[in-house]
């Protein structure tokens, strides 16, 4: 019997957060879902058995690297950052990795919900799934 990895999902853009919840349902045991920094920290702190933390760093009301550093201090769960600003080799990507993100998935800026199901969205979803199951 296979046990799904336990996930804390943190997102600040309501439409994308709902899409992530929908896409990851059934593949992960969702321990908590947070849409504010305080709720995110409380969720990560309270979910001691967390296998993964997924945080969408876009629309954060605070510096994403600072939030990731706070999450990293709460436990050993790998932190996957989803970001439109964290292209490989960018200053943002470097800052997030230095802060404690263990993996980054770059997403396109703009109308992501419109492309989530289409040709452009499929590789993003696949990359996200692969990064979360490592």
From TrEMBL:
Top-rank lineage group of the source organism: Bacteria
InterPro entries for this protein: CheY-like_superfamily
Protein name, entry field: Response regulatory domain-containing protein
Lineage: Bacteria, Pseudomonadati, Pseudomonadota, Alphaproteobacteria, Rhodospirillales
């Amino acid at each position: 019997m296979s046990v799904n990895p336990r996930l804390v999902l943190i997102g600040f853009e309501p439409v994308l957060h709902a899409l992530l919840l929908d896409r990851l349902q059934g593949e992960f045991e969702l321990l908590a879902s947070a849409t504010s920094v305080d709720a995110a920290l409380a969720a990560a702190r309270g979910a001691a058995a967390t296998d993964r933390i997924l945080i969408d760093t876009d629309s954060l009301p605070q510096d994403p690297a600072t939030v990731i550093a706070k999450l990293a201090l709460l436990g050993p769960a790998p932190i996957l950052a989803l970001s439109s600003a964290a292209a490989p080799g960018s200053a943002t990507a470097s800052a997030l990795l230095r802060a404690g993100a263990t993996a980054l998935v770059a997403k396109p800026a703009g109308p992501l919900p419109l492309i989530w199901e289409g040709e452009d969205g499929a590789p993003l979803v696949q990359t996200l799934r692969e990064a979360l199951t490592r």
